[in-house]
Amino acid sequence: MADSIRTTCPYCGVGCGVLVSKDNAGGVVVKGDPDHPANFGKLCSKGAALGDTLGQDNRLLTPKINHQVATWEQASDLVATRFKETVERYGPDSVAFYVSGQLLSEDYYVANKLIKGFIGTANIDTNSRLCMSSSVAGHKRAFGSDTVPQTYEDLETSDLVVLVGSNLAWCHPILFQRLKAAKKKRGTKVVVIDPRKTATCEIADLHLAIKPGSDVLLFNGLLTYLDQNGAKDQSYVTEFVEGLDETLQATAVDILSVAKGCDVSVADVLAFYDWFLKTDRTLSAYSQGVNQSSQGTDKVNSIINCHLFTGRIGREGCGPLSVTGQPNAMGGREVGGLANMLAAHMDFTPDGIDRVSRFWQAPNIAKEPGKKALDMFEAIHQGQIKAVWIMATNPCVSLPDAGRVREALEKCDFVVVSDCVDHTDTMAYADVVLPAAAWGERNGTVTNTERRISRQRAFCDLAGEALPDWKIITHVARKMGFEEAFPYESSYDVFREHVALSAFENQGGRDFDLSGWTDLSRAGFDGIEPTQWPVGTYAKDRFFEDGRFYTASGKGNMVPVQPKSPVYPVTADYPYVLNSGRIRDQWHTMTRTGMSPRLSTHVIEPYLEVHPEAALREELQDGGLVEVTSNWGRAILRVKFSENVKRGEVFMPMHWSDENSAEAVVGRLVNPVCDPYSGQPESKHTPVSLKPFAADWHALLIVRETLEPSGFAYWTRSLSNGCYIYDVAGVGDPSNWDDYAGVLLGQGEMLAMSDERRGARRYAVLRDDKPVGVMIMARTSEGIPSRNWITGLFAQDELNAQDRLSLLSAKPAGKVAEKGAIVCSCFNVGLLEIQRAIVEEGRMSVEAIGVALKAGTNCGSCQSEIQQILEETQTNEQKQKVA
Length: 883
Known about the structure:
Strand content: 15-25%
Radius of gyration: 27 Å
Largest sheet: 7 strands, mixed
Number of helices: 29
Helix content: 25-40%
């Protein structure tokens, strides 16, 4: 490798640039790219830990047929034959592709061209359907095109930033740090609109903890308030906006009704409305709390309505900004990876179909939209779709009503999965698995939230027999008889065709235009700098600056929207609203971030955040286990008391799967209701019930090699340096604990201790005086010791007599300064270390703790937690003084 390779982070939609170089030990060092305009050298905890995720553990290295190793020739022949036979027998709509925002644009392009252009069906959808499809639908209703008009710089030039349904601090940390710096520099006001109090509220001047799903009511009230107080930009609206009168008439609502319906105070509603009224440079940035809703599209349009009404769009520092979740969700939109798009931001109109058909020379092109994600898997369940190819995603975990998704794949005649990992919940249902290139092996382009195209460049050789996704799809297309249409030999070849399609018969009539790259050489492709589209003759500095939209009239549309009641409201049987989302240091289903020990230390178990008063009502214990049940499934989780959620609401992270836990897949609980316009599932509002889960015993299990857990009512796995940690609980005692421990921990010298009176048992298996397995069991979870000192023993060359005794006593030998739960993943700083710095050293600010411990000085994602620890510790100190 050269001194360093410039590439792009494969996680969220921020699209941070990274520099990858070799270290002296043969590994790689990952740093932020100071020249990339998305992050200017900063990385969040996940990006900073990318070097930890490049190992070959759980890597898929060869094709497999029916779980047996096969050659590429055998596997690709079978895929091509089965898809071709299925189409011939049942028609094009009997097959489908389900793809991913993890794909590069070139991968997406080839998949979309094959199925829509040559197989002849639009049954291709992407997990971005779960991410930002409501934004797409809202943009198209308002603008006539899926155009994101704002940029990251607008976060830094706004005077008021309204964050709607966005925990920016944890989900898009680099953007949060940019906003936080702007607030400090220029006094930007920040409003956070979110049912939960999240880490983002650290910088909020106002937090509106609205009732889940009440966004439309809130913004309709804002539009009414703006109208009543003379905020309409009359000249702008007259010249550039339509739908005004019917929208105002349909959305009018008084403030008292808003406050009651949103479950917030009148004073807080008025404060927000007044700030919006008086602040010209207002940016509304929204994310999954808006999109992942059965009325997500209406929520998007209710926000855009306020910006069109005030003319606050297409200008610096003001407008709507959709913040996407995945690294290439935008690229998928550009190439047509969604079932209701054709290609290059063209739709299934007669002109669009004719134009793309002629460009691709595809006489069998699909003529109408295909099935969106949930409809697609329901069609599989019903036997209408008989063959499906799933690429780089894990729908058995991520889709709602995940139990039915699994049933569908079990029933499906032919399932293909291409991925870079060897085991996922979805892969268990595959007839054929195909090894795809991983992040460090891929070469192509991605587009971030602000329409900025960046290069992902390979810095590793392809592992085993893995191939880039575009090449896998190309091989299959050729075997299906479409050789001439799929001549690609490199990602550059695909990129050139994608560029040419964007420019084909465009002349500025479509927003997506890369015509400036039409004659780009291979060297030019390799050297592409991060660039916002459009690129070419009709490029403009900022969309909608001239008041020109892509609707039939050329005007922006205000859309009359009305709040709707949830399809499944809470009931006496299911009295709590379940919300789901991300945690700070993990990504999607943890197939990548789960490989990093430092990212596994902040939150080690799946949990349910529940208000203490609700927990008391349901007889739940903080740190105990809870069974969560909905109409669609169940989960068993660790209870976490928190006043960050309201009494009737609970929160559960989305990351755990059957590969790393038992009964912790949030998709099994989530209802399958979708937005009628976007098809995006409702992931933020599912009625659930809660009850304590009574385990007979709890254990901490630490081993060198992964286990196949069985017999545990509850388990979850996390990774430490040199070992795997299992938190487990069981019902009923094994008949012989010694034999049970031996099976779990393996062969070697067994150390054992049993305290029948206290219900405690401890086991350690040593080989060559090194621990290979440890199990510490207790009747309650309170009897389980801290793991940090035990995992430290696994790093030692050998154990001395004191260490052996410590394992049996479940207490560290000698005086050990415990870290406590990890707060700062970047520098491995724990809760107890921070508390000691506050109490013993008098470090009374986040900055002072950063100087002492380095915590919070890298990505800054943990600063809000450090501030909370400061406040809680100081409060406890005051209470002790008073006592």
